[in-house]
Amino acid sequence: MSPIHYLAEDTLISLLRKRDQRAFNYLYDNYSGALYGVVIRIVLHKNYADEVIQDIFVKIWNHVELFNEEKGRLYTWMINIARNTSIDYIKSKRVQNEQKNQSLPDVVNSSETHRYADMDQMTKVDFIGMSSVLGKLKPDWKRLIEMAYYEGYTQQEISEQLEMPLGTVKTRIRAALLQLRGILNEQ
């Protein structure tokens, strides 16, 4: 079988639902980098990120029939899977125990720690090419999206951190996501 070089989103979804291995390879080749950017922002460690990426693509493959084209784009659906899987992973007891048991010098001298500690916020967001899109949001909406989707905070945690009512956080995140959808649909 020869590799696929270009697929329209609707064709890709159709082939994935038919369990076409070439479509899965295409999906991985074209989206793994962007999803990895989301994952590494949340898990902050290459070994964890590699595990999570595998889990994400297994979930996509096993649940592609749950994707609803009327609710959004495939990329957005996959980003949500990546974010949720990453958050679940870092909240798992195994990872928390590993982090507690890791000696301080190992954490401080980790090459990943230095590499990501040196990046500013917008550089990290550029892992998935979203800095220009996020830059079109109101500054307070942008911060909420960054906290929720790139830093792994729950809405309750955002509410507590920013000392903002939970209802306000939810309303503003929803408004920001609607604006982002509009911006992405224009592109």
Rg over CA atoms, rounded to whole Å, is: 18 Å
Mean of the pLDDT scores?
A: 79
Strand content: under 5%
Pairing-aware structural class of the strands and helices?
mainly alpha
- Characterize the main sheet: none
Number of helices: 12
Task: Write the CATH homologous superfamily of the largest domain.
Answer: RNA polymerase sigma factor, region 2, helix turn helix motif
Q: Architecture of the largest domain, according to CATH?
A: Orthogonal Bundle
Following the backbone from N to C, one meets helices and strands in this order, namely HHHHHHHHHHHH
**Sequence stretches where pLDDT stays below 50 over 5 or more residues:** 103-128
* CATH structural fold name of the largest domain: Rna Polymerase Sigma Factor, Chain: A
What is the straight-line distance between the termini? 33 Å
| Overall domain count | 2
Task: Determine and state the CATH class of the largest domain.
Answer: Mainly Alpha
| Share of helix, binned | over 70%
Tally of DSSP β-strands = 0
Write down the overall geometry: globular
Keywords: DNA-binding, Sigma factor, Transcription, Transcription regulation
GO molecular function, one term: DNA binding
Pfam family, one: Sigma70_r4
InterPro entries: RNA_pol_sigma-70-like, RNA_pol_sigma-70_dom, RNA_pol_sigma70_r2, RNA_pol_sigma70_r4, RNA_pol_sigma_r2, RNA_pol_sigma_r3/r4-like, WH-like_DNA-bd_sf
